[in-house]
Automatic annotation (TrEMBL):
The keyword Nucleotide-binding does not apply. It comes from Diaphorina citri (Asian citrus psyllid). Belongs to the CEP135/TSGA10 family. PANTHER family: CENTROSOMAL PROTEIN CEP135, NUCLEOPROTEIN TPR_MLP1 DOMAIN-CONTAINING PROTEIN. This is Sporulation-specific protein 15.
Length: 166
């Protein structure tokens, strides 16, 4: 019964360690993705800055003003949209990272609790094994005592039988 419980806890512990490893790996992947998104955001912000500078140059060139302004606005809107999307993605990744960090801490707490439980079960098992050894020793002594007394009874029965026949 105790061994089944120990095996069950060991299996659950291995499962939790595997899950913890998977979550840690996922967290590393998400952090790498987050860094990539930040780099893209930086690139897009630089592009946006360059476009704003280009707009000032375009305004100086009167004959191309209307066409260049329309082109810039389209590019600008696209970049702003991409920036918003990247910021949204970044915020989502931050929330996911925080959730994973909470899950990781929870798994660590569970792992600690399981280890504590295993230590207690090992102590109980050791105590039971000591008690079992003591009982086995007692049974062995009692069996020897019974065997000795059975031999004495047989001798006495033989004497009684001889005395009756004599």
């Amino acid at each position: 019964m105790q061994e089944d419980r120990i095996q069950s806890l060991e299996t659950e512990r291995r499962h939790l360690l595997s899950k913890q490893s998977d979550l840690t790996s996922r967290l590393v992947d998400l952090e790498e993705e987050n860094r990539g998104l930040k780099k893209k955001l930086y690139v897009f912000e630089n592009e946006l800055s360059e476009e704003r500078n280009a707009l000032q140059s375009i305004r100086r060139v009167q004959e191309q003003t209307d066409q260049a302004l329309l082109s810039f606005r389209k590019t600008h809107d696209s970049l702003e949209c991409q920036i918003r999307d990247l910021k949204d993605d970044n915020a989502r990744l931050q929330v996911e990272r925080d959730n994973l960090a909470c899950q990781l801490q929870s798994l660590r707490d569970d792992n600690h609790r399981m280890r504590t439980g295993l230590v207690q079960l090992d102590q109980q098992k050791d105590s039971i094994l000591m008690a079992l050894d003591s009982k086995i020793d007692l049974i062995s002594r009692l069996e020897r005592d019974v065997s000795s007394k059975d031999s004495k009874i047989e001798l006495l029965e033989d004497r009684i039988a001889k005395l009756k026949s004599a």
